[in-house]
Amino acid sequence: MTMATGIALLVIDFSTAFTNPDSELYCPADSALDATATLLSAAREAGALVVYTTVAYDESGALAARRFIEKTLPPPF
C-alpha cells in the first residue's frame, strides 16, 4: 500500500478517561467512536496518514488534572 499524498486523519482526545464507562470522566460517545472507527478504516484503506494525539502530565500537571476531576464529581451525599 502506498501513502496517499496530502491526506491525513487526526484523531484527538479518544482517551480511556472519556470512553471507558467506568471512568469518572466518561461521556456517552458511542456514535462518535463508531464514526471514528469507520473513518480509520477508510483512511487506512486509502493509505492516508493517521495521527493520534495524547496527553501526558508531569507531577504538577497531574495534580491539576486531579483537581479538575474532583470538581466534576457530584457532591457526596
Explain what the structure shows.
The radius of gyration is 17 Å and the shape is elongated. It has a two-stranded parallel ribbon with strand order 1-2. The protein has helices spanning 16-19, 30-46, 59-72; strands at residues 8-11, 49-52. The chain has one domain (8-72). The protein is mainly alpha-helical. The chain is built from three helices and two strands; from the N terminus they run E-H-H-E-H.
Offer a concise description of the structure.
The protein is mostly helical. 45% of the residues lie in helices and 10% in strands.
Would you spell out the secondary-structure blueprint of this structure?
Blueprint: E1 8-11, H1 16-19, H2 30-46, E2 49-52, H3 59-72
Parallel strand pairs: 1-2
